[in-house]
Amino acid sequence: MRLTYTSDVWWKNAVVYCLDVETFKDGNGDGVGDFRGLTQQIDYLAGLGVTCLWLMPFFPTPNRDDGYDITDFYSIDPRLGTLGDFVEFMRTAHDRGMRVIADLVVNHTSDQHPWFKESRKSKNSPLRDWYVWSDKPEPDDPSKVVFPDKENSLWEWDNRSKQYYLHSFYKHQPDLNVANPEVRDEITRILGFWMELGLSGFRVDAVPFLIENVDPKLPDPHEFLQDMRAFMTRRKGGSILLGEVNVPYSELVRYFGDGLGDQVTMCFDFISMQKTWLSLARQEAAPLADALRERPKPPKDGQWAMFLRNHDELTLDKLTDEERQEVFDAFGPHKDMQIFGRGLRRRLPTMLGGDLRRVKMAYSLLFSLPGTPVIFYGEEIGMGENLEEEGRLAVRVPMQWSEDGGFSPADPVREMPEGAFAPDRVNVADQKRDTASLLRWFQLLIERYRECPELAWGTYTVLDAGHHAVFAHRCDADGATVVVAHNLCDTAVDAELELPGLEGQQLTDLLVDGTLDVSADARVKLPLEPHGCRWLRASPPEVAPEDASVMSQ
Ligand code: NOJ
């Protein structure tokens, strides 16, 4: 792989770190995180090895959906700072070699957005067609209601202008109508505005809803994604769209752009994420192995974004009812841990019972899976959730910097967890001093991930490891190979791998000291501790000095 090319296509082995400015660090002591606080912590993120920050929405908002309900796309929520603070933050992130992307939430606005206020004034409003209105909508399909705890329809009657409006999410989030060219132009302006201020791209919220739920239906909804992507490439080569597209693989490939990669640059791999949880619950490699074997190849410069947890519920919507129940039973048996009938409002370490060995194995798996890892702030220190908070806010607790919290000198915006996951037990300062901590483990994994571009760039093959609990795969690129194995169960096991092409080669352990030899018939025995993990680089056996001199004669 040419280095110039790999750095042009930087997203293919980036380390993406998602955070909410509001809950990361309070720089002015009012209890709310802000851009000044975030800027103070950039060196921490650079030290961790993060190469790209994904900022959750930071725009003015009534905050009824944690900022995913926007009232002005061209400004900063005053609680989080000013545009000046934003630019200073961008400058600092770039100085430390980090790119920044932000949420692009244009499927809908807040109902308090001036556009919607104007649109709902009357059927003759000049902005009427900026939203989706109907006299008599089709009857609701209840399975399409995204937040069934609060909504029972996708349509809301507007008494003033006597029509229904479409809201794919909460009723206070009316859907924008991208069938209207004026709306598409405005979205393009939003992209251009933030790119001019230095963003390298966007995490696009709710992509299928954005292009499908419009009126009249677009002849080719994907054309709009192509237009967005072409615009961005014109303005700034190397900018990306990271799509939230939670649909089956067979539909998903279309969002990359039919083989050309000219729509969304990266898509979250929701399918293998859900299958990973099923594999963890069963302590069996098969669900994840099958998913990765079935997964379509993205176009040349496209990539999968891999994650285990994000800022939302852990959605298990693509599992069968029985499979979902297995994951609930294993990792979130109580009703208040579950949400929307399809997910869990918990963070990973609590789900894994605080078992550090297992938590470390799960993240080793994440960083080794073929794709670009995306982590949610606080995962690197093993933060837990606070179930006292409402709904999905349970996992969006303030970042735990030190024993006393360290997020803010004032009362924080949201309560920190208590008990085993409280800041006095889980915090950055302590883990920096502890070489065996999860934070140090993340640093090692990130370093190795970046040093092994085969993982993200190579051709991957899921291996049969000779034991049902072992997930093993190899990644090959340009004649170099990395072999990885994870023991999903809590007893020690011996895996046995067949590695065609590596006959007689040596495997060097990249996480601990040690080597293994591949036999002449390409087999290797691999002992794995309970929840053990190994990353191994293959290399031809060293030539003995006397043989070397013979060869050089
Ligand atoms: C997806 C976001 O991830 C979620 O947090 C939000 O509530 C919905 N989109 C609506 O914007």
How would you describe this protein?
- The chain has 553 residues and is an alpha/beta fold.
- The protein has 3 domains: 7-107 and 181-449, Glycosidases (TIM Barrel), CATH 3.20.20; 114-166, Oligo-1,6-glucosidase, domain 2 (Alpha-Beta Complex), CATH 3.90.400.10; 458-547, Immunoglobulin-like (Sandwich).
- The protein contains 19 helices and 22 strands.
- The strands form 5 sheets. It has an 8-stranded parallel β-barrel with strand order 1-2-3-7-8-9-10-14, surrounded by 4 helices.
- A hairpin with a 4-residue loop joins strand 5 and strand 6 (163-166).
- The longest helix has 16 residues, at 181-196.
- The structure holds 1-deoxynojirimycin.
- Keywords: Glycosidase, Hydrolase.
- GO terms for molecular function: alpha-amylase activity.
- This is Trehalose synthase/amylase TreS.
- Pfam families: Alpha-amylase (PF00128), SupH-like_C (PF22157).
Structural class category = alpha/beta
Query: What is the CATH class designation of the largest domain?
Result: Alpha Beta
Radius of gyration: 24 Å
- Average pLDDT confidence is 96
CATH topology of the largest domain: TIM Barrel
Distinct small-molecule ligands in the complex = 1-deoxynojirimycin
Number of strands: 22
CATH superfamily of the largest domain: Glycosidases
Helix percentage range: 25-40%
Strand content: 15-25%
Global outline: globular
**Major beta-sheet overview:** 8 strands, parallel, barrel
Count every helix, treating DSSP H or I runs of 4 or more residues as helices: 19
The CATH architecture classification of the largest domain is Alpha-Beta Barrel
Strand ordering within the main sheet: 1-2-3-7-8-9-10-14
Report low-confidence residues grouped into runs of 5 or more: 548-553
What is the straight-line distance between the termini? Answer: 32 Å
The quaternary state of the protein chains shown equals: single chain
**Count of individual domains:** 3
